[in-house]
C-alpha cells in the first residue's frame, strides 16, 4: 500500500481589502520580533525575494521596492535646484535614504522613525535598502515624528513622508496639523512629498482624498503623481507633490538632472512628466 505524501507550503497573504487578498509563497521566515509598536517580520518569498511585513501588512519587497523609493525621491530632486537639507519621516527600511545618498549636493539628512527595531532588523537582514544608513550625512532620530517636526522652522529644502498606512503608529501623519507643521519646517522654496496610497479600492481611496484635501489647504502648489508597484494594492500607487514655489513639470530641470548620471531602474525624466498625467477616475476622485 502506497503511503500518502504530504507537502506543506507556507504562504503569506496581504489583505488588500475586506474582499481582496494578495498571496505569495514563502520559502523561509528570516526574522520576527515584537517591538513596542508592532510585530515585524522579514520573509523570503519565491517570487518577490525578501519582504518586510509590519503587523501583517506588506511594506516593501526586494523585487519592486526600487519603484517606490525612486519615485518618492527623484521626482522632487529633479525639480528643486538646490536641495541641501532633507527630512525623511518614516523610511525605517532605508530605501529612501539610499536614493537620496546618490546626490553629492545633499549635505544633511535627518531620518525620523518611531520604531528603532524596524531599522535594526533591516540593517541586519535587508541590506538592499539599508545599505546607506551609515552615510555620515544621515542622522537617525527614533521618536514620534509630529513632535520632532514641531520643533523645526525654515530648516529643510525637502521633506519626504515615507510612512506606513494611515493607521497605527503613522495615523498622526495624515492630518492638516501635520502638513501645516511640515510647511513651517520647510524653507521658502521647500517641497513636501507624501505617499498617498492607492486610489483604486474604496477603502484606500478615502485616505487618498483626505490627504490631498488637507495638503491643498496648506500649500500653494499641490498635485499628485503616480507609479505602478506590482505588490501594492491594485498596483496603482499615488504620491502627493506639494511646494511653496515649484511646479513639478514647468520647473523640471530635465537636462541638468540627466547630466548627473544617477543610476535608476524605474525613474527617468520622461516618466517624470508622464506620471503627473492622471486617469480620469483619479482626477474625479481628487476633484482636479
From TrEMBL:
Pathway: Amine and polyamine biosynthesis; spermidine biosynthesis; spermidine from putrescine: step 1/1
Keywords: Polyamine biosynthesis, Spermidine biosynthesis, Transferase
Domain PABS: from-to ranges: 9-244
Keyword Lipid biosynthesis in record: no
Enzyme superclass (EC): transferase
GO biological process: spermidine biosynthetic process
Annotated catalysed reactions: S-adenosyl 3-(methylsulfanyl)propylamine + putrescine = S-methyl-5'-thioadenosine + spermidine + H(+)
Family label: Belongs to the spermidine/spermine synthase family.
PROSITE patterns according to UniProt: PABS_2
GO molecular function: spermidine synthase activity
Domain of life: Bacteria
Function statement: Catalyzes the irreversible transfer of a propylamine group from the amino donor S-adenosylmethioninamine (decarboxy-AdoMet) to putrescine (1,4-diaminobutane) to yield spermidine.
Residues noted as binding spermidine in the record, renumbered to the chain: 69, 93, 162-165
Subunit structure: Homodimer or homotetramer.
Protein name, UniProt field: Polyamine aminopropyltransferase
SUPFAM superfamilies in UniProt: S-adenosyl-L-methionine-dependent methyltransferases
Binding site for S-methyl-5'-thioadenosine: 38, 113, 169
Enzyme Commission numbers on file: 2.5.1.16
Pfam family, one: Spermine_synth
Active-site residues annotated for this sequence: 162 (proton acceptor)
Record-level GO cellular component terms: cytosol
Presence of the UniProt keyword Transferase in the record: yes
